[in-house]
Hints:
By secondary structure, the chain is mostly helical. Helices cover about 55% and strands about 5% of the residues.
Amino acid sequence: MISTAAATRGSIASKQGPTLLLKSINGLTASSRGLRPCFVLVQHTQLTPTSRRNFTSSPSHPKITEYFPQKETEKVRKTEAAWPHPVYTPEQMLAVTVAHREAKTLSDKAALVAVKVLRWGLDFATGYRHGKATKLGQKDPKAALEKYGMNEEKYMMRNVFLESVAGVPGMVAGMLRHLHSMRRMKRDNGWIETLLEESYNERMHLLTFLQMSKPGIFMRLFVLGAQGVWFNALFLAYLISPRTVHRFVGYLEEEAVVTYTRQIKDIDAGRLPKWEKLEAPEIAVDYWKMPEGHRTMRDLLLYIRADESKHREVNHTLGNLNQTEDPNPYVSQYKDAGKPHPSKGLEHPKPLGWERTDII
């Protein structure tokens, strides 16, 4: 089915305008143990409520069972994002690099160990063996690709699971700080909004990937169980040591930047042919304000990687601050506006976070 879409993509894009990504009913099989997404590109048209209900498969596009229209009622035309996304320039996104903050304190080391354990578990579950693949690739590249190579379906399964749990830390932290602020009857100095916005952004990543794939029952149950454990573990951890949790999320986002960087490199190396000219879904175009001519899967991964790099910076910065007294530097107004300061965009990136002495 993807080959049919690829063959017609050029003519559709040039003659009919934007395209809409649809998904098929392909689900879980015992051999895949995860997602088996199938991509179909069709002409994007304005559908009436009646035509939406009657939208079914056609001979040229079989097995199309559902799609993701913008929610619309008789009186509501469109619902904008709660937090408008800052605009990234291509130069800013290409400047994002892999970085690692050295673990200095005992809480830093505990956070780093926890991330490494989680990373190992996710790698094992999704068949991701980058280290072994690199080592074998030095001797036999073909064997490494056959044994450890990641394809589009494996990466998509990994991305869906990763983003399904990535939105939990910000929500837990924001919720606890919200309740804490009410109990103390004091302001939270701007932390709550940034944490909730981070959680919202991670959910938008998930919704974007779900426009391209349909999780099977195994993946849905896996996500359900993981989210239950994840939420409660973070809830208890944040009550005990907010600083450790922010450092933990900072290290977790470091790994996310690594993962998306490798996906971008695999596209550039031609190892993911289905993604080379795959168009980003409409929800992504609207959310990131993606310009014409820069709406491929590679462009989408650049935006998402940039977001993860920002979460990396924000959480490392919050981990450097006094957890109860310091204001949130990402929503503060500074006395010396001429110097670089933390911001929501990528104007002054600090991959390892801003040190407290530089901003407070």
